[in-house]
Every structure is written in C-alpha cells, then in structure tokens.
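Progress report, Aim 2. The chain analyzed during this reporting quarter is listed below.
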Amino acid sequence: QAYCPEGSIVMPNRRGTAPGCIVEAEGKAVAVLPGPPRELRDMFEQQLEPYILARREMHLSSRFFRIFGVGESNVETILLDLFHSQNPTLALYCGAGEVTARLTASGAPGEDLAPLMDPVEAEIKRRLGDAVYAEGRDETMQSAVLEKLIARGETIALAESCTGGKLSAMLTDIPGASKALVAGYVTYSNEAKVRSLGVTREVLAAHGAVSEACARQMAEGARSAAGSTWALSVTGIAGPDGGTEEKPVGTVFIGIASPYGAEVQRFQFLGDRSWIRTLSCQHALNMLRLALIP
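Predicted structure tokens for the chain:
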C-alpha cells in the first residue's frame, strides 16, 4: 500500500490510494498493479500500456466487432475457417447476451497491418450481416442505438414494466443521451399503465399486463405522451414467481412504435430475475437498432 522497491518506476494511482510500480531487471520488467478493477484499468491504460508500447519489438493491431442475436457457438460455426489463420488471428468473447469478435494482426513496428485485416473484416461482416451492431472495444448496444437516433435527428420514449427503469438507466449512462431520449415511464402497476400510457382496462381484463396487446398499447401510449419519433415498451414476468403454464417465468413482450405503426415480439428468456431483465433491455434496444437500419 505504501512502499515500492528502490529504483522502481512508480505509477501514481489516480483512482485510489495504492500506487503501482514497474521493476526492471535483466532485460525484463515486472509490473505491480492495484486490485480494484477501476483503479487497475485506469493505471494500465494511462501508464502501463504506453510503457509497454514504447518497448515492444512487435506491432499488434486489433479490431473489435460487437455481435448480437447470434449465439457464441453459432458465431464460431459461421466463422470457423477464419480461426485457422495465423495472422491475423480471431478470438471470441461472451458478454451479456452478446458476443465480441477480436481480430488481431501482428507485424514489425510501423508496418501497415490494414492489408492483412481488411479482407478478414469484410468477410466477418458479410457472413454475420446486421448481427454486427458496432465496432470498437468499448461500444455498447445503447451507444450504437443513440448514435443512430441522433444522426437521424429522431427521438425515443420508453415504457417499462418488468425492467423497472433499467432500460432508461442504460441509455442515460451514455453522455449526450438527452439529444434523443425524451422520457421514460416506469408503469409497474396496471393502474399506472392505464393512467400514464392509455392502456385500456378491456385489454388488461382480456389479455393481462403481460401480453402482446398490452405491450402494443404501452408503446403507442409512450410515443403519444412524449411526442417522440419512436417508443419501446417492455412487459413480462421476470420471476422468480408469477409464471403460469401459458406464460412461464421469462415470458417478455417487447413493443416498438413509430410513425409507421407498432409491432410486438414475444421472447422466452431463461435465467434468474436479473438476467431476464438484462436480456429484455438488450433485445428491446436491438429491435430499435434493426428498425433504424435503412
């Protein structure tokens, strides 16, 4: 926490109290970093990575492709022959309901690696099509959707039930979200759906809150109330209780409304309450993303 070896290169901690250090000996280097992820990442990116890059004997370049709607095993099957290349190499990483493909090429310092990577990148995109939603290690579904909305000068409103504001939080995590996000309605009770979104009591009585008809009226009501271009709605059974034989836990209806009308999709998610809510948000954003593709 307080001491570093004599002669070491000290790396100040901008996010905490424990410094890091680099010890050089016999042509090698040992780096010591703090454990908390937010401290470690900042120290690596701001101090250790530049140290490594300045001393490298090989040039590495990576490109990242964020993929949604195709499972890891299917992505692997689709891209199978591309994994056999020695340069560039291809690797897959799983995230929250999505997959990241990392393409990495190596060469001499200063060498242009684009001729190695461009053909493979083009093939990845050709095979996966619209499933590739963004490029870049730090890109997210919500940042990709907001970028599209802002570029088009369009807006979005949200109507949430089982996600309880999680979808709104994901969007407002992105700086500049106010350029596209107009309003979010967390209508957890049936009465709130009626009062705030105009869901009819007849629909609730005939179909229930977790239904295609309710999701449709929630999306249409949110768009009307907010005056937005688009609206998303989410209603479902996140569990662990509340499921029935007809609508088991994990049943979620997601609606999308626009100037062109409204549509609803039914999903059946597996997992615990937190995972079902996360998947609901991701799939809602993906529905909007796909709708925004020209």
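The mean pLDDT is 96. Residues 75 and 151 are 29 Å apart (CA to CA). These observations will guide the mutagenesis work planned for the next reporting period.
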